[in-house]
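re: ur question from earlier - yeah i can do the single chain one, its not a big deal. heres the input i used so u can compare w yours
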Amino acid sequence: MNYFYFKTIILLLLFNCCRNNEKPNINVVNIIKEAEILTFNDLNNRQREDLKYCCTYHINGTLWNAAAMIPFKKEDAYFVKSKIDNNLLADLIESEDFSKTELLQIDNFHGTRFLYGKYMCRWIFTDSLNEIIGETDKFDGHRILSINRSSNIDDIVVGPLVKKPKKMYIKIFESKNYPGLNPEFEIK
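and the output i got, formated as tokens:
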């Protein structure tokens, strides 16, 4: 009788260890819910103040240095306001280094630095000719002007952009469960 219980426990342990813990498929189309183009005049006062020392963009394909930066007027820039499902994005970005819980944390000093911070993902925008718009931030691709969270939706304003964007991407650097998936959205 004792041997039977021992054998049963061993079999249950083996069964649980060998169980398939695959994550369900994630539909990256549902991560970026909507996006709209803004101009400098559409920004609020705080966002405009944050652009006090602005604006240059980087020549694609060159090293990041002063010689590769081209100035432009912030009043002529474009910005993208988007709604992003932070739960789905956290599922996508979860890695060996950062759990979904850590990615979704907000602190007063850094904001959502884990979910949208450098080394996690990068903002990429393309124009109507499908050419990549010159980046304005070395680590994030483009700067986040504001993030407002309401439950699982983040309202984010990204910019300045030197050209009017047609499509946006969130390039994911590392994903434990979904390597190679990058959310994209065609801006109307």
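The chain has a mean pLDDT of 83. not sure if urs matches, ping me
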